[in-house]
Design a protein that fits this description.
Order of helices and strands: HHHHHHHEEEHHHHEEH
Structural class: mainly alpha
Distance between the termini: 52 Å
């Protein structure tokens, strides 16, 4: 029961996919998968990449019925397979394709394909007002499947947001990995948005002329903080429990971002010490 629930959360429920058209003989499984509702974040992984077994090293330990799932993705599965088994294989094939996709999008060709989607703003725009509609990029909070759903990363405020659509919100974050957006900005540094001032909402089109203040570094909204203060009764306690997103590439924190965050945390620690001192006096 628990395993079925995890499968539903990370790959889309069976009922959700049963409403989609079954891949026809003339169309490939990958084309059908990409055209299904809720899979708009994915790009097409080239077949020669999938057929190179070196690129799939270790995935046989992550996916049940690995060989048959791979045959299904590459349209080499026997036609006489039972319908019940085919349904189970389809779930495993979606998991396998997602894990392959996470590896593909950090290659040069994969980054180029995701760059096109980024320019079309396929992943939406940052909901934060001071980010001036900065386009977002998908990111995982874990590289391990079944742990965290996909989030959307804003390069301007350097924070992550949940997708608006529940279909997109149920995608496993491991299908995009923790490194992808930061590697994209590393390979294409001209796309990295400024922290203040005008921003080009679509990297290939018009820019906005409105300037934003230095307050663009603020991520949390004041009403959310005040509500937490009321619940806990301690401002310092709220500050200590606050989580923040840390951009990483292959597990290593980015150098400039790491230095900035160390400085920010030092300032935060000083403010917490002041708050604790004031609370002790009151």
């Amino acid at each position: 029961m628990l395993g079925r629930a995890v499968d539903d959360i990370s790959t889309g429920s069976d009922s959700e996919y049963s409403n989609c058209a079954v891949p026809s003989v003339s169309s490939s499984w990958i084309s059908w998968f990409l055209s299904s509702k809720g899979n708009e974040y994915f790009c097409e992984v080239e077949e020669d990449y999938i057929l190179d077994r070196f690129n799939l090293t270790g995935l046989n330990n992550e996916v049940s019925n690995y060989a048959q799932a791979l045959d299904l993705i590459t349209d080499n599965l026997d036609d006489d397979i039972q319908d019940e088994l085919r349904g189970a294989l389809d779930v495993q094939a979606r998991l396998l394709y997602g894990l392959i996709h996470a590896r593909w999008i950090v290659t040069a060709r994969g980054l180029a394909k995701m760059l096109e989607k980024f320019k079309r703003v396929d992943f939406g725009r940052c909901p934060r007002v001071l980010c001036q509609s900065q386009p977002l990029l998908p990111v995982g909070l874990s590289d391990t499947p079944y742990e965290k759903s996909v989030k959307l990363y804003c390069g301007r405020c350097e924070d992550v947001y949940s997708p608006k659509s529940s279909r997109h919100g149920s995608i496993d974050g491991a299908y995009f990995g923790t490194s992808f957006p930061h590697l994209l900005f590393l390979v294409y540094p001209s796309l990295l948005p400024p922290k203040a001032g005008p921003v080009d909402p679509t990297p290939s089109s018009r820019g906005l002329e409105n300037d934003s203040s230095r307050k663009s570094r603020r991520v949390k909204e004041e009403p959310e903080i005040s509500e937490s203060v009321v619940e806990t009764g301690s401002t310092a306690g709220v500050a200590l429990k606050a989580e923040r997103y840390r951009p990483r590439i292959y597990g290593f924190q980015l150098n400039e971002t790491a230095k900035l965050q160390r400085w920010q945390e030092a300032v935060r620690d000083r403010q917490i010490a002041r708050l604790e001192a004031l609370e002790d006096l009151s």
